[in-house]
Amino acid sequence: MKTLTIELPEEETKLFKQLLKKLNGRIISQNDTPNKETVNAMEELKQGKGVKFSSVSELFKSV
């Protein structure tokens, strides 16, 4: 069995689910909307807020 991540237009999901059923496939997880924490973080970054690091090492030192 192989696991794939697939992005589809909303109007094609019904057809794709029918095809999966015919092929004995299944949807393991489905998430098309970021959670509230993620949305807030993205908004914060759009506003120029957030913490910036000059390197990955600097990031890990702050944790």
Output the helix-strand order.
Answer: HHH
Major sheet summary line: none
**SS content category:** mainly alpha
Helix content: 40-55%
Descriptive labels:
63 residues; mainly alpha; elongated
Question: Can you characterise this structure?
Answer:
- The chain is mainly alpha-helical.
- It is 44% helix and 0% strand.
- It has 3 helices and no strands.
- The radius of gyration is 19 Å and the shape is elongated.
- It starts with 12 loop residues before the first helix and ends with a helix.
- The model has no long low-confidence stretch (mean pLDDT 88).
Concise structural overview:
The chain contains three helices and no strands. With 63 residues, it is an all-alpha fold. The longest helix is centred in the middle third of the chain and has 11 residues.
Describe the secondary structure blueprint for this structure.
Layout: H1 13-22, H2 36-46, H3 56-62
